[in-house]
Amino acid sequence: MDETRHLHVRPMSRRSFLVTAGNLGIGVAFGDLLRPALGAVMARAATGDFRPNAWVTIAADGIVSIMSPASEMGQGIMTTLPLLIAEEMDADWDRVRIVQAPSDAETYGNPGFYGIQLTGGSESTRGYYDLLRLAGAQTRKIILASAAGLLRVPASELITGPGQVVHRPSGRKLGYGEIAATATLPDPLPQATAADLKPAGQWRYIGRRDILRIDVPSKVDGRAIYGMDIQRPEMLYGAVLRPPVQGERPEAIDDAEARAVTGIIRILPLSYGVGIIGETVEATKRAKDLLKVTWSTSSRVRRYTSDRLIEDYRMTAGDIGRDGVTAYSEGDAASAIAGAATVIEADYMSDHVAHATMEPMNATALVMGDRVEIWAPTQGPTGTQHFAAGVIGTTPDKVTVHTTLLGGGFGRKAEADFILDAVSLARDVEGRPVKVIWSREDDIRHDKYRPLAAQHLQAGLDRDGNIVGWRHRIAADSIFARTMPELFERQGGHDDVVTEGAHVNYALPTHRIDYLRQDNGLDVGFWFAVGVGYTRFGVECFIDEIAAAKEIDPVDLRLELLRDQPRARHVVETAARMSGWTRPREGRALGIAYSDAFGSHCAQVAEVSLDRTSGAIRVHKVWCAVDPGVAIQPRHIEAMIMVGITNGTSQALFEQINVVDGEVQETNFDTYRVIRMSEAPDIEVAVVPMAGSPVGGMGQAGLPPVGPAIANAVARLTGGVRLRHYPFLPERVLKALSA
């Protein structure tokens, strides 16, 4: 099917998508929303380069510079998005240079995030896909029109090849650099619509395995600039001592010893801690250790103990009589379950986990009057502008954000707390930049953790074993209530990122999802795969429990329930075939799980063994079949799936944050356990896109299935022992074995 018929933008439905002439560049209309996406079109930049639009600059030597609007944090987006423009404009990829887009949501905002610059939710490719292809198509039409003027021929007689225009009747050629050196923009500007996009059969770059990532060479040879690498003239360093319990404030500060440290310039109280400014990192660290602070004791987080609360959450989720917010409802699931011949129910729980990015939180800020300049590894330039403006008392347009490479993000660097540290301290030494670098201990103890969550699932079966009712209740704190309170209120108290993934595409005649918000004061945030990472744990383990009750193969049950989902069936069948699903293993067993999160279909089979003496689980291999819709970079998709599987195995087996009376117990990697290289499973990935499908998100798609696949494998290995609490710590496994 022609690819141009499958333009897709999320989360708003598209009424029209049209490239227009004039000052608006590309105008993207979503209902009543109309915003400029290319900015003012410039005929020639001050350097003499040719700028067809705000995304592309062509130099006289033929070098094409393409803006990358998303944050690169190891997911390869700095290659994927510019590749879409290069494809449609017929650029020579070997002569393309990528430029990180400035903080300018009006021009470079993501349609998938309501027009702001934010990288997360596996939304970058899905959000920008149509927009950037159209930008490339418009660029190509401008180049053709400009070349037609130079050659004095009709544009209809011209075609493009990589980096050049060819006049078909005469064979004359013009390189893009030659056009850039002398051409002017046509007036009026050519328009581009979906009809101008290349069909899949004409793609030069999309789908090729030999397109390498742009960011990798500089990371190998050390040229890459992360936030921590930023150096500015007359730069100072900053640190912030935070309270041991979130929400407390400094009441008394004894800083005599800290001020005596050589190189310390300022120590200042903040509403949330104590700031230190010095000439070196070492000085600020030493001074921070010497501070003696009396903290307030009024924070309600002091009553927060995670072991106790998870049990409270479990009881809340399982109390069917307790109302929550109905997140989804199809049919009368309650009545169907009440009248069922058999009712199956189970509880699933998941602990807090930390982001633990290899590059800790850091930012550099310079305050000059009412203007702020920031260099940071941020996922959210737009949010950074707004929060920084609030600190200084200025407007967001006076805040410039330079987005560096991110040494891991996983949603943590969409937050602004580390940005505010740098801006708050820089305000006190106006005119000198201040770089704040969090210690690993700061990073672990003051994270915005994945929510503590408990789930209760119920299914009603008729006398023939058919599912007639499905109910999924989720008790967890809200991320949106803190980060987007207005949206949270508009949604009637529902947090759809916390419940994301509970809505499944299995054939269920009645289906209801309830969200029961828990509010105990601790900040929670977006973590890799967010809600899907634990909701699919519940769903996919529960599917296996139903299969066991029906005494049928769990693969067969999934295929039965996915009878109207060809893409889903294909990945389930492929993963089962890859693993040799029916072949017996000595001392090992296989488990399967499936996910359609982020618009990509992903099935995984995990092979595990179990030490029944220690309770330790070993994951030997994971087979994965993934359908991303449009496989823009198949080789990179394989790599991203491996990242998700490795991360998912880590959080399923090891990762856990414990909070006791408001204080986080873990401080560094000696106590916050993550997967070791020796523990990582072998991984085999098959990318199996189904023709004509819309592009899906890939950054997090590999994580949701692996945890439930491991749990399901343990159940098959042990004759039905169910692991229902993330992480599967050895002591929890032993307890389940002895139950």
Structural account:
- With 739 residues, this protein is an alpha+beta fold.
- The chain has 3 domains: 3-206, 2-Layer Sandwich (Aldehyde Oxidoreductase, domain 4); 228-298 and 361-437, Aldehyde Oxidoreductase, domain 4; 306-352 and 449-738, 2-Layer Sandwich (Aldehyde Oxidoreductase, domain 4), CATH 3.30.365.10.
- Helices cover 29% and strands 23% of the residues.
- It is built from 20 helices and 31 strands.
- Strands 13-14-11-21-18-19-20 form a 7-stranded mixed sheet, with helices on both faces.
- Helix 10 (381-392) packs parallel to helix 11, helix 15 runs parallel beside helix 19 and helix 18 crosses helix 19.
- It is globular and about 80 Å long.
- The protein starts with 15 loop residues before the first strand and ends with a helix.
- The relative contact order is 0.11.
- InterPro entries: Ald_Oxase/Xan_DH_a/b, AldOxase/xan_DH_MoCoBD1, AldOxase/xan_DH_MoCoBD2, AldOxase/xan_DH_Mopterin-bd_sf, N-heterocyclic_Hydroxylase, OxRdtase_Mopterin-bd_su_IorB, TAT_signal.
- One of its GO terms (molecular function) is oxidoreductase activity.
- This is Twin-arginine translocation pathway signal.
- It comes from Tistrella mobilis (strain KA081020-065).
- Residues 221-299 form the Aldehyde oxidase/xanthine dehydrogenase a/b hammerhead domain.
